[in-house]
Design brief:
The protein has nine helices and eleven strands. With 329 residues, it is an alpha/beta fold.
Length: 329
Amino acid sequence: MAGHGYESGRLNLPFVGISTFGKRAYVADWDAIEADVAVMGAPFDFGTQFRPGARFGPRAVREASTLFSFGHAGAYDHEDDATYLGPEVTIVDIGDADIVHTDTVKSHANIETGVRAMLKAGALPVVIGGDHSINIPCIRAFAEDCAEKGPIHILQIDAHLDFVDERHGVTEGHGNPMRRAAEKGYVSGITALGIRNVSSTSKEGYDAARAMGDDFLSVRQVRKLGAEGVLARIPDGARIYVTIDIDGFDPSIAPGTGTPSHGGFLYYEVLEVLQGVAKRHEVVGIDLVEVAPDYDPTGSTPILAAQVLLNFLGFIFHARQSGGAPAAG
């Protein structure tokens, strides 16, 4: 094709081609990951207690992410006067962890293997779920990384505390992940934002969460504090792992989830916190879970998920390049 600059090469519109995350390169060999960011799907939803369907989340978020794949020179933001995710930031899609139907142990082990491979390659791991139980193998995968580099602090965006210890023998469902994380010696604490209304966690779980270092705020409490007040509650110098349950957002903008809860966050309320975290902290891992696209015929929920992830990644690497937050490794 003739042309120069933006006109060179294929136009490659969002609806053309294979739906990898952001239309970035696909890497099938997990021993050959060479990138700043590696994205993996974890299409596991056996841990759900109500509506299933988050197994289709990774495909939906990938397809939605193609909407933001225009251009070859990054995304310019006029409010920040900054260009995010330019060609200097390499992102690859490594496909999905293999899910073995009805077998939580094997499925979680396969997810953990993928996260370990991304960490070994020095890439920032981004995992798209799947229900929130996929956070359990993600956090397990950080054991060696933390032994070398120090503990992690978890920032949780969620409607539910997810701090159930055990329910009818279930310890690794989507109500358990933050309890399992808090038990890890290399998890220094949890900051949970958006917790509200009738929850899956009993009072015992809330009491245990407080005792185990979980600082949780409702949407109304976050609004009262503002982004800066919330950021001040996260320990200085902490290495941050961010887990985003899409039901942390209000169902008016994110209806495509298994356990919607009214009174949730709007887009910029979360984005401003994530931008502040990226400026102040080393972000070492991200998962985004509970997108169940069949409950949202408009497609806005996976678009929200893709938009949040791409903007957050832009903030992280802009901060690193600007000398703000420390680089991984």
